[in-house]
Design goal:
mainly alpha; 0% strand; Serine Threonine Protein Phosphatase 5, Tetratricopeptide repeat
Length: 412
């Protein structure tokens, strides 16, 4: 997530929440647990027995239904490791259980891989699911459109924003035509397109779509539905980029508190919303509170997503930005260097998030007087930028693209 206005460039990750994902029932019927306590209770009750199962040890419908329900509850509660094991177990059982919808299981497997930061693996599974759905159902079936929407979200998280935008516009219009403008799938598609436009720096377009999505979700789903809260966080992030801080901050605070009930204290989406709130506190001059909250976010990300998840690493970089703003330049540089090295391995140095950390680190090194190291870092950034094709350059957010272009022109 981004922090705002603390140093010259703070562009480590989208401050919008990850795009809404379509999750599909993988059996003919599937129980959904609506509350966070209910989901956590199911995970605690069922996980030990189910995770001891192997491909040949579950064959009764009750077992399959329980595995499926646990997978969905685990995904919704943020326990992605349990969810991953469940989806893979269902795939292993599918050969002799025709009640299992293999395409649905694969689609949900991709949702889980995406949530775990394994975006390349998720994309490969989703392209396979898209092909199967098109052949079986046709290109405009709601199921097909849903998996196309998921593929676009995965592409966006990999920095392939223009390809994502093209798919999202196509699926949005198809959802509108087939389901209508009040269907939650259409509204999530609207939110997702807004998130991609945000990532491209097209904030006026993004805010218009996000406002429409939020108002409609409030009417259709209710103010405290998880999808409504995600839309509220996204719109607040866009308002911040537009300088509309007085509107953004109350939205962030409300969403963080409501997510505590809807999702639970340590759900990854709530942690991302807390990251944005920390940035707002810093903007208000409440640096100590902001830094403490960002540290809490980082601890939560490490616990729920792991040390090397891209979102954890972006949070690490953002904490570095806060340390920079507080004048702790040595701590800032250490955090940003750690984030840069790990992000390069996780998503590739050409990813917008990685290039953005380079931008932040270059500012920190300059303020420390480490000019030779800064010069070497900027030359490295230029080499990466020059190695990108025109399409990949166009995918970069405008402020980052302008910074890299200026380095190229000055020969830094």
């Amino acid at each position: 997530m981004h922090l705002f206005g603390l140093v010259l460039l703070v562009l480590t990750d989208a401050s919008v929440l990850p795009p809404e994902r379509v999750q599909l029932a993988s059996l003919s019927s599937s129980a959904r647990i609506s509350s966070a306590p209910g989901r956590h209770a199911l995970v605690r009750r069922c996980s030990p027995r189910i995770l001891r199962m192997r491909g040949g040890s579950a064959s009764m419908p009750d077992d399959l239904g329980e595995i499926n329900a646990l997978a969905i509850a685990s995904t919704e509660s943020g326990d992605f490791i349990t969810a991953l094991k469940c989806w893979r177990l269902l795939l292993a059982l599918a050969a002799r259980n025709p009640s299992i919808d293999v395409t649905g299981v694969k689609s949900n497997l991709a949702v889980t891989l995406y949530a775990m930061g394994k975006h390349g693996e998720a994309e490969a599974v989703e392209r396979d699911v898209v092909r199967a759905a098109q052949e079986a159902l046709g290109p405009r079936h709601p199921h097909t459109l849903g998996v196309f929407s998921n593929l676009a979200a995965t592409l966006a998280r990999q920095g392939k924003f223009l390809e994502a935008e093209a798919i999202q516009r196509s699926t949005l219009e198809a959802f509108r035509a087939t389901l209508g403008e009040k269907d939650p799938r259409y509204l999530n598609a609207l939110t997702n397109l807004g998130a991609t436009l945000f990532s491209l720096g097209r904030y006026t377009e993004a805010s218009a779509l996000e406002w429409e999505a939020l108002e409609s979700k409030r009417a259709v789903l209710g103010e405290d539905h998880a999808d409504t809260l995600s839309a509220e966080v996204n719109l607040a992030a866009t308002y911040t980029r537009q300088g509309r801080h007085a509107e953004a901050a109350p939205m962030e605070r409300r969403a963080v508190e409501a997510m505590r009930v809807t999702l639970g204290d340590r759900h990854p989406d709530r942690l991302r919303a807390m990251s944005n709130l920390a940035a707002s506190l810093a903007r208000e001059g409440r640096e100590a509170e902001a830094e403490e909250l960002m540290g809490e976010v980082l601890a939560g990300m490490r616990e729920r997503l792991g040390e090397r998840h891209p979102d954890t690493l972006s949070t690490l970089s953002n904490l570095g930005v806060m340390k920079h703003a507080a004048g702790s330049l040595a701590e800032a540089a250490a955090l940003e260097q750690e984030a840069l090295g790990a992000l390069g391995k996780a998503v590739g140095e050409e990813h917008p998030d990685c290039l953005s950390v380079m931008a932040n680190l270059s500012v920190t090194l300059a303020h420390q007087g480490r000019l030779e190291e800064r010069r070497a870092l900027m030359q490295r950034a230029v080499a990466i930028y020059e190695g990108l094709g025109e399409e990949r350059r166009a995918d970069l957010p405008q402020p980052l693209r302008e910074w890299l272009s200026s380095l190229t022109l000055t020969g830094s």
